[in-house]
Amino acid sequence: MLQQELSRAEQPAQSVAFSKHAISRAQERGIEVTPDLMDQLAGSVIRAQAKGATNILAMDTEKAFIINVPNAKVITAITQEEMKENIFTNIDGAVFL
Q1: What is the 3-state secondary structure of the chain?
Q2: Pairwise CA distance, residues 54 & 91, whole Å
Q3: I need a labelling partner for 59 at 20 to 30 A (CA). Which of 7, 43, 53, 77 fits?
Q4: Could you give the CA distance from residue 51 to residue 48 in angstroms, rounded to a whole number?
Q5: What pTM value is reported for the model?
Q6: Taking a C-beta distance cutoff of 8 angstroms, is the pair 42, 80 a contact?
Q7: Contact assessment for residue 23 and residue 32, using Cβ atoms and an 8 Å cutoff
Q8: pLDDT tens digit string along 9-25?
């Protein structure tokens, strides 16, 4: 699935794409990118666009993603353990998956 996202990241985005950095982080951190997760992320982008957000934190209880809304691109992926020690800056919205 991550290889498909790498290919999608190089094509015009119809839905959410992962940056190379985000793909690398997801692999390193054992975050499984499933079709259901991709649908949730795409829904987050749609909801954020409706509110005028440009950079969001999309999260659930186990993982979080920083997403650039205008480009519909996941910038990075974070696990629950890393969320406890991080401060998220340069975001203007949060969406719960």
Answers
A1: CHHHHHHHHCCCCCCCEECHHHHHHHHHCCCCCCHHHHHHHHHHHHHHHHHCCCEEEEECCCEEEEEECCCCEEEEEEEHHHHCCCCCCCCCEEEEC
A2: 7
A3: 7
A4: 5
A5: 0.82
A6: no
A7: no
A8: 554 445 899 999 999 99
